[in-house]
Structures are given as C-alpha cells and as structure tokens.
UniProtKB/TrEMBL annotation:
Keyword Transmembrane belongs to the record: yes
SUPFAM superfamilies: ClpP/crotonase
Recorded superkingdom: Bacteria
Pfam families found in the cross-reference section: Peptidase_S41
Keyword Heme set for record: no
BP-aspect Gene Ontology terms: proteolysis; signal transduction
Name the UniProt record assigns to this protein: Tail specific protease domain-containing protein
Transmembrane segments annotated in the record for this chain: 7-26
PANTHER family the UniProt entry points to: CARBOXY-TERMINAL PROCESSING PROTEASE CTPA, TAIL-SPECIFIC PROTEASE
Organism listed in the record: Caldisalinibacter kiritimatiensis
Phylogenetic placement of the source organism: Bacteria, Bacillati, Bacillota, Tissierellia, Tissierellales
GO molecular function: endopeptidase activity; serine-type peptidase activity
Domain Tail specific protease: residue ranges: 216-438
Gene Ontology cellular component list: outer membrane-bounded periplasmic space
Keyword terms of this UniProt record: Membrane, Transmembrane, Transmembrane helix
C-alpha cells in the first residue's frame, strides 16, 4: 500500500510540473525556447527534400507508437489512414511551414490536447484584423474594427461555413472536443500560415461574409503586418469579490499558480466570507487554461470536508520515458488505484466554509482548471455552472518532449492517462455543467455576465 501511495504522490507531482511547463510554453510564450538542448527550427520558408520529410515523419510516427498510452495496442484504423495519407503528401519538395501541417495532422489524430507540435512562425508572417469570439451558436466579431462592427455574425470565410472550418481545424488542432477546437481556432484563423493551409487567402486578401442586423455584407480583409502587443503583466490573475446583498463570494482564478500570492488571496477571501457570514461561494475558472493542480488542495482546505477522492492514473513505460524520466522499466503498462485525500483543513475553524459551493466553467477551462472542476463535481463538493469545458475529465497528460531531426519541430507526447475520481460519469469528452448557461453575443454587447446572473437567481430562489 505504501508503494502505491508513493507512486501516486510521484505521479501527482509529475503532473503538476508538466502541466506548469505545458501552460508556460503553449499559452504564455506561444513559441519554443531551446534551454533543453533543442536546436533552432528551420525557417518556415525553407525547402525540404522528400528524404528529409520522410525521416522526420518516420520519427514522429515511431514516437507516437512507442510512447502514447492510446497506441499501446497499435494505431487505430482511423489513425493508420491519417498516417498513410501523410506519407502520400510528401512526394515532392515542400516548404517547412507546409510540412508542419502534415505532421500536425498525424499528431492530432490521437485527439489528445496535451500531445502537440509547435511551430516558430516567421517574422514576415502576417495576420488579418478579425477579432473573433466563437460562441455556442456561431462566430461573431467581439470589437469594432475599420470594416467590422461588434456583434457582426460571421457567416462564411471565403465560402467556408462554421461547420466547414470546424472540420478542417479538427485536423490541425490537438483537442478532445469541439469546444477546445473553437478556443484555439479563433486565434489561428487570423494567422497567415493557417489561413493558407485552409485555402482562405486570395490575392493577399481574405473575404468574409457577415450578417449585420438584417443585412448580409461582404468585406475584404487584407493581410497586414502582425504588431505583437506586450501582455499586461500587472493584470490580476487571482482576485475575489463579495456580494453581501446576495450572500455570494466569487473567487476568480485565471491561471493555476500555486504561490504565496495565491495562498494569501484564498485566505483573505475566506476571511471576508466568514466576516460577512456569506452562504455561497463560487470559483470562477472560465479563463483558466491550467497550471499547478495544487491550487485545488489549497482551496479545499477552507471547505469543511474530511476527505475527497482525487484522480488515479495509468502510465505507459517506454525506452523514451526511461531516458527522460529515469524509469527502470522500458516497456509495459501500469495502473494506479485511486485514493482518498485527507483534507488538511485550516486550523482556524472560523474560516471553514460549510455553505453552498459552485464552480463556473467555460470552453477555456482546461488542464488543471478542468481538474479543479472535476474534483468538485465528482466528489459532490459543489455544483458546476456555465459552459462545457475544453478538456475531457479523464484525459492524457504528463508529456515527454522531442524534436524532429531535420525540420527541428519540437513536439510533446503524453505518457499517462489521468482517470477522474468518479468513473461512473464517463465516458465524457468534456465536463458538462450541472447548470448550463451559455454566453450570447447580446451578453457581450451589453457587458453582462450571464453565468453569475444565473447564479444569483438560483441563490435567491
């Protein structure tokens, strides 16, 4: 039993570290640095020979086959078909940037959002001014531009409908559900390499058909230089508000950073909740794409529960995992049983909360943020309100990192499968809220918060 617990602790720590790395690289930097000994990637406009591409494709296919838990018994028929088509495409000289999409389709066939390949775009790559928000009922413009108006509905991008674009994006965005394809797709649909891959550019313009009020209009958006804006590093990633009138405290967490600031903010939040005798608290992870899963345990220290069930896991051993992690085993598969976590409740009993708990989710809720919501739901600690998440409750993760020999593309592959606490709720390709509340374009135009408004309505009932 002690061995099992040690393995679980190790697996949890590993997930924490890898989730943090994945979040930093993929969502913060949007590029890959080379502190791990990786060489620079070839420029997207460089040409590759058939032999070079075949060597790189062989390497990617072999790594996926040898490392990922999903391929333990080999590739599926669907995956084999994607791989066969990839080899057919590399029958002549090709640009590095185009070859990226060939490899990406192979990697995306696993439908694992943590298994992905990165591309360093050229400084010469351009964008179009198309501020998209992709809602449940379609694509809209979220802010005014020279040619577009906030609230315009996008009907077609160069004769491709929302459904057409989703089908194409699913091939090149590693995802477990359409929510995540939309989250990642809206940012990719403005970038020149992706626009070219999708066949949306004509004479350096992208034609977009929109609906404004009762009229249908067509606009031509030119490719323009990408002016990278610096992120506002002072933006609050953790905060809270207390609504005494409705007896509601909302704890807003936009990234799962487990540090002193987080711990202090959680403590201050529950001090105010106790001071004003608040009966309802909600954790808002709608804009949270992950990080360190220890934020969950820290928050639950203030909830009056004795224990809770956490995730269990399956690990696939491989030569590559042994080399990167030091495992003694180089093959095989092992499952670790789930265990109850003893809740290390805060010593100040006045801060222990025993009222109603909610967690607010959206398609941007991913990785450790999704983990937060799943633990709440599967242990009946709180109700989930909002929109379906961008991550499966039981999903893959804990990644190994590789680089193709010729093109220099860095990619990562999961070696573990994380299993949710309550497997009776599976299979699910996302976490479905107990109370579904979708954001509409009218909410955005009028700056309303439909999820919090619904929560206040529920409380007052």
């Amino acid at each position: 039993m002690n061995r099992i617990i040690k393995h679980l602790v190790f697996a949890t720590i590993t997930f924490i570290l890898i989730s943090t790395v994945v979040y930093y690289f993929f969502f913060k930097k949007h590029n890959v640095n080379y502190e791990y000994g990786f060489k620079p990637q070839m420029a997207p406009n460089r040409l590759m020979t058939v032999e070079q591409m075949k060597e790189d494709l062989d390497y990617v296919v072999n790594v996926l086959r040898d490392v990922h838990p999903k391929t333990y018994n080999g590739f599926s028929n669907e995956q084999n078909l994607v791989i066969e088509n990839a080899y057919k495409k590399i029958n002549k000289i090709m640009k590095v940037g185009d070859f990226y999409f060939v490899l990406n389709e192979v990697i995306c066939s696993l439908k694992d959002a943590h298994t992905m390949i990165f591309i360093e775009l050229s400084k010469d790559d351009r964008i179009i001014d198309l501020p998209i928000v992709w809602l449940n009922d379609g694509m809209y413009i979220k802010e005014d531009t020279e040619q577009l108006k906030k609230g315009d509905k996008i009907l077609f991008i160069r004769q491709k409908s929302e459904e057409d674009l989703l089908k194409e994006l699913e091939k090149i965005i590693p995802a477990e559900n359409q929510q995540w394809v939309k989250v990642r797709g809206k940012s990719n649909l403005i970038k020149e390499p992706f626009l070219r891959y999708l066949g949306l550019i004509e004479n350096d313009y992208v034609n977009v058909k929109i609906q404004r009020d009762e009229k249908e209009l067509e606009v031509q958006l030119p490719l323009i230089k990408n002016k990278k804006s610096k992120q506002n590093m002072t933006e609050e990633w953790v905060s809270y508000s207390v609504d005494k009138e409705n007896s509601l405290g909302v704890f807003k967490l936009d990234t799962c950073n487990y540090d002193e600031k987080y711990k202090t903010t959680v403590a201050n939040f529950f001090k105010e909740v106790s001071k004003y005798n608040i009966k309802n608290v909600a954790v808002d992870v709608r804009n949270n794409s992950g990080g360190d899963s220890r934020v969950v345990d820290e928050f639950l220290r203030y909830i009056d529960i004795d224990n809770y069930l956490s995730f269990s896991g399956d690990i696939r051993y491989s030569k590559q995992a042994s080399e990167q992690r030091g495992y003694s085993r180089k093959s095989g598969y092992k499952s670790y049983r789930k265990q109850f976590i003893n809740n290390k409740k805060v010593l100040n009993k006045e801060l222990l909360f025993d009222g109603n708990v909610y967690i607010i989710t959206s398609p941007r809720t991913f990785s450790s943020a999704n983990w937060f919501a799943v633990i709440m739901k599967d242990n009946n600690i709180g109700k989930v309100i909002g929109e379906p998440t961008g991550n499966q409750p039981s999903s893959y993760g804990d990644v190994l990192r590789f680089q193709t020999h010729n093109s220099g593309f860095v990619f990562q592959v999961s070696l573990k499968r994380w299993v949710r606490p309550n497997t009776d709720n599976d299979p699910e390709n996302c976490l479905h809220p107990d109370i579904e509340v979708y954001t509409t374009i009218e909410d955005i135009i009028n700056e309303r918060d439909p999820q919090v408004e619904k929560l206040i309505e529920i409380i007052n009932e």
